Amino acid sequence: MLRNTWAEISLSRIRENMLNIRRSLPNTVKLMAVVKANGYGHGDIESAMSAIRGGADYLAVAYLEEGIRLRDAGLKHPILVLTPIQPELVQLALKHDLALTVTSAKRFSEMRAIKPYGSESKLRVHVKMDTGLGRIGIRTKQEWDELVPWLRSEDVEVDGFYTHFATAGLADTSFLNQQASRFIEMKAWGSSSGLDIRHYHCAGSIAALRFPDLAMDMVRIGAAMYGFYPSQLSCPVKLNPALSLHSQLIQVKQLAKGEVLGYDNSYRAEEDEWIGTVPIGYADGWTQRMQGTDVLVGGRRAPVVGKIYMDQLMIKLPGPCAEGTHVTLIGSQGEQRITFSELAVHIGSVAQEVSTSLGVRIVRTYNDFEEMRPRWDKQTWPNEINQAVI
Ligand SMILES: *Cc1c(COP(=O)(O)O)cnc(C)c1O
Question: Which end of the chain is more exposed for a tag (fewer CB within 10 A), N or C?
Fold first, then answer.
């Protein structure tokens, strides 16, 4: 490994998280594993395979190119692209057998103009309804009525009809209930349209776990499969974060009381103290907002001091340490533990912002490829994974 800053990802944890979610829901509910943004930073192909072993039936990504990557890796499960694609790319989506999100008759008719009627391949779509998130989707009955004739075509398969909640993580459930009722109303538009709609779905991770009654035909699980759940809620199933982040001290020095360090002299030593330099910075996704957090060294907490640089940061060590000493930025050392939730609270965001920010320069290591091997015929293993195992 050339870089001494790395993320360790436990694929068995992703699988176990998914299995625990699977067990908490009726067997009739399908599980869609959301592996957008490189599997929330955990590796898209690896996460998808682990999720499938944990019982996932479907995969989802945000963008077309993410779906193509999964197909190129040899994954055969149905894949939904959650963000509407540019209509002119419809042939590319068809070629890779990707299901598309549809949000209006206009956009759909533009796609239709490119995909010839009656050609062999089916255009598989999930219609997105906006029940209150206000992001994308159909909001009115009139918009739905305009779309329906376009969907009533031999070569169009309406695989899904879905919405997304705005407040699934809030203690106050009134807006969620409002969205759920609106979706039930819209569902009736779907069932009375005469279209053969295969799956109705509305719940992401939090809604699926908190309100299993909203699971309907399918749930879309992202955050929870990586082990994330809002810390202010109690999680009804056992979830473990799959990723930990590590580095090493590349320099250790003593600073005398009153000496300064960092860009803009951002830190002044309060006493004679030991300072370590860690090779991770904002270009790796460890943003300047991480100033004021801790890392772990020798089983103890060490605060980040001064501004975070592009490629390094500095910490105040508990005492003298050897260069090369192991540093844990996310994960545990002895009794001490730095969690995604702790970092998320510090930056005023959610765990998945921390994990998806981890840049491409951070090496991903997978500590249990071996465990996955037996279920996968070597022939069907994606090449990248074969190479990584060998
Ligand atoms: C990202 C995404 C999800 C996954 O949400 P989690 O909270 O991470 O489980 C589900 N549905 C849609 C539409 C999404 O964009």
Answer: C
Looking at the domain assignment, is residue 369 inside a domain? no
The CATH code of the domain that includes 313 is 2.40.37.10
Domain of 285, in residue numbers: 243-338
From 338, 361, 380, give the residue that closes a domain: 338
Question: Could you tell me if 221 and 78 lie in one domain?
Answer: yes
Given the structure tokens 């809620």, which residue do they identify? Answer: 233
CA separation for the pair 68, 72 (Å, rounded)? 6
Distance of CA 65 to the CA centre of its chain: 16
Distance between CA atoms of 317 and 152, rounded to whole angstroms?
A: 66
Residue 136 has pLDDT above 90, yes or no: yes
Give residue 326 CA to ligand 1 midpoint distance, Å.
Answer: 34
Backbone φ and ψ of 380, nearest 5°:
-90, 0
- Ligand 1: residue whose CA is nearest its atom 15: 82
Question: Is 106 designated active site?
Answer: no
Nearest-CA residue for atom 14 of ligand 1: 82
Confidence of residue 1 (pLDDT cuts 50, 70, 90): low
Among residues 76, 238, 257, 263, the one annotated as catalytic is 263
**Residue 310 marked as a ligand binder:** yes
- Interatomic CA distance for residues 298 and 317, integer angstroms: 9
- Candidate list 30, 36, 128, 316, residue with the active-site label: 36
Ligand 1 centroid, distance to 82 Cα (angstroms): 9
Q: Are residues 74 and 166 in the same domain?
A: yes
Confidence (pLDDT) at 367: 83
263 is catalytic: yes
Q: Do both 288 and 200 map to the same domain?
A: no
Q: Measured from the CA of 162, which atom of ligand 1 is nearest?
A: 13
262 and 196 fall within a common domain: no
Mutate to test the pocket of ligand 1, among 31, 32, 34 (most ligand atoms within 8 A of CB): 34
Q: How far, in Å, from the CA of 319 to the mean position of ligand 1?
A: 43
Query: Which structure tokens are listed for 281?
Result: 């910075």
Total domains present in the chain = 2
pLDDT-based confidence at 220, cuts 50/70/90? very high
